Amino acid sequence: MKVPTLRTAIIAVVAAIAWPAAFDVHAQNFPVKPIILICPWPAGGSTDQHLRAFAQIAAKHVGQNIVIENKPGASGMLGPGNMTKVSAPDGYTLSQLPVGAYRIPHMQKVDWDPLRDFTYIIGITGYTFGVVVKSDSQFKTLKDVLDYAKANPGKFSYGSTGNGTSPHLLIEELATKTGVQMLHVPYRDFGQLYTAVATKEVDWALGSIASAGAMERAGRAPITSSRSSVVRQARPSRRASVLSC
Predict the structure, then answer these.
(1) Mean confidence (pLDDT) of the chain
(2) Cα separation, 42 vs 51, whole angstroms
(3) Please, are residues 92 and 33 in contact by the beta-carbon 8 Å criterion?
(4) Per-residue confidence (pLDDT) for residue 232, from 0 to 100
(5) What confidence score (pLDDT) does residue 1 get?
(6) CA dist list (Å): 59 to 13, 20, 37
(7) Contact 165, 76 (CB under 8 A)
């Protein structure tokens, strides 16, 4: 299966914006009831906050409430995958779809197809990732991180938001290019991930600047986010996601 680039997906999505017209009689009156928008990550996280803000704005234009349903799990694919099985293709159930949807089928068996089972609507949100360490960590620079990893092959651990997610693969790419071996520990969401960093379950993580910074400022976890000197020496990575139905 050929995997489309995100740019290709978003271009294809633009042509699908008029998708309600496909429902003939119902198209002119759509929507006649509230719309469900699935957030495949836990409530309170950065994606959840962005989608709730989006829902409030979009509801004013469509004339119906847009209800957020949080269905986290499976590296962000539990909610969208379940949508393909139980939701009618009538436009009343939407979901945020992470770009991991294009990778995961090549890593493990799934019961959904990213090309066949989703209609892509629009590019909706994105993330800037950076390194997160405990606030009293010995690591002050990216060189510190890599030097320690090289001296402790296979013992230096990092966390991500799941197998096949962008944080996971970005760190594996860094490890490959620098010749280091690190132990990967997947977590369900950024909240669990930052708690793991704060309690030293893992040595470091690649997290969202927005969510890590918010937790740091609020004092919810003793972590140092992407604004630290560790990350200023590394180029942040940006990854986007699309809204699908």
Answers:
(1) 77
(2) 12
(3) yes
(4) 35
(5) 41
(6) 20, 16, 11
(7) yes
With 0.85 as the threshold, say if the pTM is over it.
Answer: no
Assigned token pair, 120: 């892509």
* Three-state DSSP state, 137: coil
Residue count of the chain, please give it. 245
Determine how β-strand 204-208 pairs with β-strand 120-134. Answer: antiparallel
Please tell me the distance from the alpha carbon of residue 41 to that of residue 63, in angstroms, as a whole number: 26
Beta strands in 116-178 (DSSP E): 120-134, 157-160
**DSSP string of 194-241, one letter each residue:** HHHHHTTSSSEEEEEHHHHHHHHHHTSS-EE-TTSHHHHTS--EEEEE
> Which pLDDT does position 60 carry in this prediction?
93
Structural domains of the chain, with CATH: 6-126 (3.40.190.150), 128-239 (3.40.190.10)
Q: Burial code of 116-154, b = ≥16 C-beta within 10 A, e = fewer? A: ebbebbebbbebebbbbbbeebebeebebbbebbeeeee
* Mean pLDDT, 10 residues at a time, the chain of 245 residues: 39 36 58 95 84 93 95 91 92 91 90 93 78 83 86 90 86 91 89 86 83 59 44 40 51
